[in-house]
Amino acid sequence: MAYQTLIVEIEDNVALIRLNRPEALNALNSVLLGELADALKSADGNDKVRCVVITGSEKAFAAGADIKEMSSKTYVEMFGTNFFGTEPDSIGRTRKPIIAAVAGYALGGGCELAMMCDFIICADNAKFGQPEINLGIIAGIGGTQRLTRFVGKSKAMDMHLTGRFMDAAEAERSGLVSRVVPLAQLMPEAMAAAQKIAAKSQISVMAAKECVDRAYETTLNEGVLFERRLFHSMFATEDQKEGMAAFLEKREPQFRDK
Ligand code: CAA
């Protein structure tokens, strides 16, 4: 499907979704968020897709929610339409793994979108921030909650209250991103990671994703129990038999998602 604000390519079982509003540094307007939710839904339902990568341009992953679109809105419009209440939730419901490949600015809603992905690989020019405070507002797509869980209260407060940006080295140090690579290596690195995931059993990939996500929603004991039960359930799959047989026979496994 052709989108106005996205370029979507599927190659080697990976859906690459590129945010494409260069004139606004990929600011997240309603059209883009709707199209992104749609692209993720169709990737989730497409048997050829086993992992998703979301990226932007070299200058900006996304510079935030679209300020021009929001500037004249009233409280009644924001609350009445549950602004940002629908599309971001549907992004979070995607069952297949999503990697954010971030170069340049990931600010406000852009930082929040990256944090909604399963993990973030960033280029050495990346800058993360929640500068909404400079606009007389606060984050609205989960930034106060997710950033705090990822980097801790002190740094999250610092970012949200001062609006300062965090560079790639600080983002890696604080656990916001999983890897930092030179800008030229960003897409090869992200696509290689996605292809590595795509080669696993999709059943165990989705189970692992659900378990890690559960860590943010529950107590340690409940999370460990949830993990153990899903671990037990893996033994009902053919892929468990194949994975372990391949190890013992010293060959590569051929997973069939069964
Ligand atoms: N919304 C709409 N347009 C944006 C935008 C945004 N968030 N960010 C950048 N743009 C537009 C600019 O208006 C400009 O357009 P024009 O050429 O038509 O004027 C174009 O993108 C290029 O931007 P700049 O000229 O500002 O580029 P720069 O290199 O000088 O600065 C920047 C880059 C530091 C990212 C700067 O653009 C900036 O500060 N952007 C806003 C960042 C921000 O405040 N984000 C939070 C938004 S609110 C939010 O996200 C709420 C939420 O949590 C849901």
UniProtKB/TrEMBL annotation:
Q: Which GO terms describe its molecular function?
A: 3-hydroxyacyl-CoA dehydratase activity
Keyword Lyase carried by entry: yes
Instruction: Supply the alphabetized keyword list.
Output: Fatty acid metabolism, Lipid metabolism, Lyase
The signal peptide here is: none
Any Gene Ontology biological process: fatty acid beta-oxidation
Does the keyword Transmembrane feature in the UniProt annotation?
no
Record EC number: 4.2.1.17
Annotated PROSITE patterns: ENOYL_COA_HYDRATASE
Q: Which domain of life is it from?
A: Bacteria
The reaction(s) catalysed by this protein are: a (3S)-3-hydroxyacyl-CoA = a (2E)-enoyl-CoA + H2O; a 4-saturated-(3S)-3-hydroxyacyl-CoA = a (3E)-enoyl-CoA + H2O
Instruction: Sum up the protein's function in the record's words.
Output: Could possibly oxidize fatty acids using specific components.
Q: Which family does it belong to?
A: Belongs to the enoyl-CoA hydratase/isomerase family.
The protein here is known as: enoyl-CoA hydratase
Protein source organism: Paenirhodobacter populi
